[in-house]
Amino acid sequence: MKYKQLGRTGLLVSELCFGTMTFGGKGFWEVIGRQPQDVVNTLVAQVLDAGINFIDTANVYSEGESERMLGKALGKRRKEVVLATKVRGRMGEGPNEVGLSRGHIMQAVEDSLTRLGTDYIDLYQIHGFDALPPLEETLRALDDLVRSGKVRYIGCSNLAAWQLMKALWISDRHNLHRFETLQAYYTLAGRDLERELVPLLQDQQMGLLVWSPLAGGLLSGKFYREGEGPAEARRAHFDFPPVNKERAFAVIDVMREIAASHNVSVARIALSWLLHQPAVTSVIIGAKNEQQLEDNLAATQVVLSAEDLSRLGAVSALPPEYPGWMLERQGQNRVPSPKDN
Questions:
Q1: Which residue in 49, 150, 313, 332 is deepest, having the highest Cβ count within 10 Å?
Q2: Range(s) of the domain holding residue 177
């Protein structure tokens, strides 16, 4: 297992992060996964023993059950992990039990700490954008949590580039702790964040944490153009994240060929490609059983050749879009070549 610097911090996290969205299976989350506590205990022990030191959850997963089950599974091994959770989603029926107001954040962090059975959260992330409170209110609340010791670092998820850059500017202007990471969707079937977010992250030295690296199971190798696929798979009941299926299956065709040449699963190729991307800090993997988890963990051992990466890059390339194509055009020949002198 390799470890990478988390944003600008001195914290090192494993290149694979274990996601816990499948824990519990309560309410809306039942379609994602329904692992009971004994299975959760086994999977958490398996990832820790494999060298993963980074685990991600959220208060909304299974209406709090995911955090509670994770806390029980970690037990005395809590200090071995960089523990990340999130705030924003609705946690009750009241008008203030959702969002990124100071009031909701302060209540949510206390509830998460209790469910996780810990007195600090390593990485506390906003789960998305909230247009109601000003960003200053949200960022000051998060800064207070860091200064109090209840949170060590802060991050964000699912933000547009302008929202993220505005937040960084506010933090800089008011000397507040800033977001160190962005958790975002990124796969061979969906490379949209390369247009604006990846350049921003690299310029601002932020970490990228990838969620749904298999595009909700579509890149697992279990689905075919003809619509064939396992009835019990998540994609069969929850068609998310949205992807261009025609382009995705063109990518999968190439992935199958490369997987066969390496004698590995298609899923490992999808994960390995992400691990080869310089902007990626950690890839969040989830699993419903030990076998699936073992296969995902083995993605760290797959070394893609320059030809493999070229083929995958070409078949999954984003179509040109303004202003990207203009920036590329105007950036050509900016610096004279030696032959021009």
A1: 150
A2: 3-333
